[in-house]
Design brief:
The protein is α+β, with helices and mostly antiparallel strands and 193 residues long. It contains 5 helices and 6 strands; from the N terminus they run E-E-H-E-E-E-E-H-H-H-H.
Length: 193
């Protein structure tokens, strides 16, 4: 791990973003509009963390200890005139401290987590790769932007399943917190069985 003590603004949600996954956001609160403007000006990013206590709007929420960096891929105005963002999950991070700015934005002191090593899928997880292949074939164009398929890569298979399977937030959060791709796949195997 590196970059201890880096500050990252947070966008807490009742959702978990995993590396490589796409997520749509509607932005209307001034603190998050300011955040998006600042990211646009500086080329910066923000973090998405699962809300442990609180709501997505109003008073600042308490974020989970692990989150994912969000890269803005696209933006527009929706029919209601609200800012609509499409973000993609990048690096995982661990939150070690938080503070709340005057505008209510939560800023975290974070440590970036190591990227997954590129490791081959174990034979006991081959069923998961086949499940993912079928999900992607069935979904077709509905899962636009899925990174280039790597069905032999344990990390890639795990993150795509974590993104696409109908998991509970706590299950997806547990996967996000797991550093080992093989253990992550084992958890997924237990979830689907």
């Amino acid at each position: 791990m590196s970059d201890d003590g880096q500050l990252l603004p947070l966008f807490p949600l009742h959702s978990v973003l995993v590396p490589g996954a796409a997520l749509g956001l509607r932005v209307f609160e001034p603190r998050y509009l300011d955040l998006v403007r600042d990211c646009g000006r500086s080329g910066g990013t923000f973090g998405i963390c699962l809300i442990l206590d609180g709501e997505e709007s109003g008073a600042p929420a308490s974020p989970a200890a692990y989150g994912t960096e969000a890269l803005i891929e696209d933006f527009d105005r929706d029919a209601d005139g609200l800012l609509s963002l499409r973000v993609r999950g990048a690096r995982r991070f661990r939150v070690h401290s938080t503070r709340v700015r005057d505008n209510g934005l939560v800023v975290a002191g974070i440590a970036w987590q190591d990227e997954d090593p590129r490791v081959r899928l174990l034979p006991e997880h081959a069923l998961l790769a086949e499940l993912l292949r079928r999900i992607l074939e069935h979904a077709g164009a509905a899962v636009s932007g899925v990174p280039k398929a790597r069905f032999d890569d344990a990390g890639w298979v795990g993150w795509r399943l974590a993104e696409l399977l109908p998991l509970e937030h706590a299950q997806r959060q547990a996967l996000l917190q797991e550093a080992d791709p093989h253990r992550r796949l084992q958890q997924l195997l237990e979830f689907v069985s």
